TrEMBL record, chain A:
InterPro entries: AAA+_ATPase, ABC_transporter-like_ATP-bd, ABC_transporter-like_CS, MacB-like_ATP-bd, P-loop_NTPase. Keywords: ATP-binding, Nucleotide-binding, Transport. This is ABC transporter ATP-binding protein. GO terms for cellular component: membrane protein complex. Belongs to the ABC transporter superfamily. Pfam families: ABC_tran. It comes from Extibacter muris.
TrEMBL record, chain B:
It comes from the Bacteria. The keyword Transmembrane applies. Residues 88-305 form the Histidine kinase domain. It comes from Extibacter muris. GO terms for molecular function: phosphorelay sensor kinase activity. CDD domains: HATPase, HisKA. This is histidine kinase. The keyword Transferase applies.
Length: 222, 309
């Protein structure tokens, strides 16, 4: 079942002489439960692509369909709700709220949506990710790897349609990277979650079911 | 008189408020009813994206319907695959069986008439044995096939040492590797993880078996265990023929057989089973490989038991 489809996605910055096309005719399909890695050198357009899929940036041309909705057709308010309810973000910089403890950080997106916290489900995530002992701590008291695990838990807690991970191990050493990515993979399989991850690291990309290479704004399939 | 007026106004306001909430609740219930009717009819829900409570319920409902549909699709596909594979194996089984009958009848006749040399009987015996081996392979495949049926893998996870897996693998494959001239190097480990011993041995055995099968004489197959903070990783590395990047995702699919190895016996179950086993015990398996340089299969195990509370 298709969960995400982009059709002829284009992004052009500037006009005339200074025109730069960051993305060129990107056709991408993600099926439910897939773990896809998008690899490419910096400047290849992979972050631009991820931002557009996440509704953080607007394409110059083309369509993005997710869960039966066309993203460009949504109003700003609808897009906000859509992002909060359907997309779990994992960033390189973790982006945890420093004043809130780990538990509060994890359930924040649920609270924002006015939903009842499915405590059993969230605790299961917390247990797999091995952060049970840290729930009362604030993010600053945790290591980078632990903070990223909290970010994974936060992304999973809302049972999103899609998890978007932007260089999730960019700030971690290689051993911790393996650990954190392994946990992302294990949890996404266990909870039947679809993940699109961008990275420039081949070793990290190999954890995915499918690797897409992007160069000069185009997906090159091998 | 003023208190009569005040009393009646309060009373009327109360009724108006009650009617308002009653109407609101009826509306919500009507919406939920409509949503369920749509779901029952298999129609797509038009999930609203607003801040209302019904919208969040709609969203969850939609998620549930989609999950269920994906699951059903998978079950249907698996059923079809299994059916076609079983009919394929049954057809293949007919030939060795009729051959065995034929050769044994010939042998019987020759022994009875005693007008031919002994060597003829021996030839037929060898032919029978060859056919029996084919049959044996097919039956073994059927057994494996039945194990890959959805829900057949029941794991009994517990936190335990990984070394017993390595010991079993060593005993099981030392001879086979030597026969082929492949060096099997297993590094001992003191690490522990959460897994089911019996199934995990089967998973690792399938990976090692492939490694030996697709590595030429003079090559090596290595097993190495490494520990991270919450995971343990077991690498099975060979310097065999390797797997192209295109194929790396497909090799874990059920019944997938690479074009490159189509002459080797096999039905494409081993790695699928390995992946299913790892998934069931909350681990996973991945591959990295280059054509001509070899492959490395990494099995990841969780270190902590997931308690249910």
């Amino acid at each position: 079942m298709k969960i995400l489809e982009t059709k002829g996605l284009k992004k052009i910055y500037g006009t005339g002489e200074t025109k730069v096309s960051a993305l060129n005719d990107i056709d991408l399909v993600a099926k439910r439960g897939e773990f896809i890695a998008i690899v490419g050198s910096s400047g290849s357009g992979k972050t631009t692509l991820l931002n557009m899929i996440g509704g953080l940036d607007v394409p110059t041309d083309g369509e993005i369909w997710m869960d039966g909705k066309e993203l460009q057709k949504l109003s700003d308010d609808e897009l906000t709700v859509f992002r909060r309810r359907k997309i779990g973000f994992i960033f390189q910089q973790y982006n945890l709220i420093p004043m809130l403890n780990v538990w509060e950080n994890i359930i924040l997106p649920l609270k924002m949506d006015g939903r009842v916290v499915d405590k059993e489900y969230v605790m299961e995530i917390v247990n797999i990710l091995g952060i049970r002992e840290k729930l009362k701590n604030i993010p600053n008291e945790l290591s980078g790897g632990q903070q990223q695990r909290v970010a994974i838990a936060r992304a999973l807690a809302i049972k999103p349609t899609l998890i978007l991970a932007d260089e999730p191990t960019g700030n971690l050493d290689s051993r911790t990277s393996q650990d954190v990515l392994g946990l992302l993979k294990i949890t996404s399989e266990r909870f039947n979650q679809t993940v699109i991850m961008i990275t420039h690291n081949e070793e990290i990309a190999q954890h995915a079911d499918r690797i897409l290479r992007i160069e000069d704004g185009r997906i090159i399939r091998k | 008189m003023w208190y009569v007026w005040a009393g009646s106004i309060t009373f009327l306001t109360g009724i108006l408020i009650a009617v308002f909430f009653w109407e609101k609740e009826r509306k919500t219930i009507r919406q939920l009813q409509k949503m369920l009717d749509h779901a029952i009819a298999g129609k797509a829900l038009d999930v609203q994206l607003d801040e209302s409570k019904t919208a969040t319920i709609e969203n969850d409902m939609w998620r549930y319907i989609c999950d269920k549909e994906v699951f059903e699709q998978n079950v249907r596909r698996e059923k079809m695959q299994i059916q076609s594979k079983i009919s394929d194996i049954s057809h293949q089984a007919v030939i060795p069986i009729s051959n065995i009958i034929l050769y044994s009848q010939l042998a019987e006749e020759e022994i009875r008439t005693r007008d031919r040399e002994k060597s003829c009987v021996l030839e037929e015996m060898a032919a029978i044995q060859e056919q029996v081996e084919k049959l044996d392979f097919l039956i073994e495949t059927l057994v494996k096939l039945s194990r890959t049926e959805t829900g057949m893998i029941h794991v009994n996870k517990k936190y335990q040492l990984l070394q017993p897996i390595l010991d079993t693998i060593r005993i099981q494959f030392q001879e086979k590797a030597e026969k082929k001239g492949v060096q099997l190097l297993i590094e001992n480990t003191g690490e522990s993880a959460v897994f089911d011993l019996k199934w995990t041995i089967e998973a690792v055995a399938n990976v090692v078996d492939n490694g030996i099968k697709y590595t030429k004489s003079g090559g090596t197959v290595k097993i190495h265990v490494e520990s991270y903070s919450s995971l343990v990783r077991m690498d099975v590395t060979d310097d065999g023929i390797g797997i192209s990047e295109m194929e790396q995702a497909s090799i874990f699919h059920r019944f997938y057989r690479s074009e490159m190895v189509s002459e080797e016996p096999g039905v494409g179950i081993g790695l699928y089973l390995a992946r299913e086993v790892m998934k069931t015990q909350d681990g996973y398996i991945k591959v990295s490989s280059k054509i001509g340089e070899g492959s490395r299969f990494s099995l990841f195990f969780l270190k902590n038991e997931i308690s249910q509370n």
